[in-house]
Specification:
Helix 4 runs parallel beside helix 8, helix 4 packs antiparallel against helix 11 and helix 6 packs across helix 8. This protein is mainly α and 321 residues long. The chain has 14 helices and no strands. Helices cover 74% and strands 0% of the residues. It is globular. The protein has one domain: MetI-like (MetI-like fold, Orthogonal Bundle), CATH 1.10.3720.10. The longest helix has 42 residues.
Length: 321
């Protein structure tokens, strides 16, 4: 009986730790949504379909405790989050996949080891360092290359055009996501069995065709996982993005075209940082917790989407759970 207890003890500990993790996650969701509930209840769907967050946060801060201002529209923040993350992810995916193919297939073992060490070092750099580099280099460069005095005058009635804008946020975010994509994609490509590659060469396929016809399809689940993790980091990044984004939740206009990327933006995570000094006011606190709740929902959908993609890929590959 004693021996059986010892055998079951590791499983009991794992079960207990899993239960604790689930309880902690549930507590986080309940706590954040309870704090955000006054804003969600008051605004309903207009919370997701209207803008004006910058003016509304000021009105909320100066409102009285007897008559708090709970009117908030987060459409500008949500679109800013989606636009910066998707564009940065597309660029990071293209660069990261190319770099992982180069590291895996076109460099020797020593150079490959050095490159992977550098990539993992980049992934461990604190986000505030990326923000500082962005302020010193990216912001002035974007302003010099893309913004003219005539453009500043033309769009002055809509926003003040400076180097702190959506494009700068995308560039900084790209460099933060790339190491994650490279590292995980490289691991996925290295996990492809050598026999698969040898079979391709045996049929007379070139190295290029082996990579794109055999290795990439085989490693696609790992590559997609790297992109999903990159998207998660992009959506949740606050410090670095808040330092270069401009800090205004402007709704992009289709008629502006590329100028939308030169306008200030304010993703949800950056909004929490930028407006946190006003959290002494109950309406402002509820609004910022609503930003956090929206981020939690997006993260949950990303996680569920990752699981669905992995399940579909496994089924397509012939694996059955």
């Amino acid at each position: 009986m004693k021996r059986k207890f010892r055998l079951d003890m590791p499983q009991t500990i794992i079960t207990l730790l899993s239960a604790i993790s689930i309880l902690v996650i549930a507590f986080i969701f309940i706590f954040v949504f309870s704090k955000a509930w006054p804003v969600f209840r008051y605004n309903s769907l207009s919370y997701f379909l209207s803008g004006g967050f910058d003016r509304q946060i000021s009105d909320a801060f100066y409102s009285s405790a007897d008559n708090p201002s709970l009117t908030f529209g987060m459409l500008g923040l949500i679109l800013g989050t989606i636009c910066t993350t998707i564009v940065a992810l597309l660029i990071a995916g293209f660069i990261g996949l190319g770099a992982s193919i180069t590291i895996t297939e076109y460099t020797g073992p020593r150079i490959s080891a050095v490159l992977i060490a550098v990539v993992r070092l980049l992934a461990s750099i604190p986000s505030v360092i990326f923000g500082l580099i962005g302020i010193v280099t990216v912001v002035p460069l974007v302003e010099k290359l893309f913004i003219t005095v005539d453009m500043q005058i033309k769009y002055l009635e809509f926003f003040q055009m400076t180097g702190k804008n959506m494009l700068s946020a995308i560039i900084v975010l790209t460099f933060m996501i790339v190491p994650t994509v490279i590292s995980l994609s490289t691991d996925a490509l290295r996990a492809v069995p050598l026999t698969y590659k040898e079979s391709g060469y045996a049929f007379g396929m070139s190295h290029f065709r082996v990579i794109f016809k055999i290795m990439l399809p085989t490693a696609r689940s790992g590559i997609i996982a790297s992109l999903i993790l990159g998207a998660g980091r992009g959506i949740g990044e606050a410090i670095a993005v808040s330092m270069v984004c401009g800090g205004l939740g402007i709704i992009p206009k289709a008629g502006f075209g590329f100028v939308n990327f030169l306008a200030p933006t304010l993703p949800l995570a950056a909004a929490i940082i930028n407006k946190s000094e006003a959290m002494g006011s109950m309406p402002v606190e509820a609004a910022l917790f609503s930003c956090g709740a929206t981020l939690l929902v997006i993260g949950a959908f990303l996680s569920l989407g990752a699981g669905a993609v992995e399940k579909r890929l496994r089924k397509a590959a012939g694996y059955h759970d």
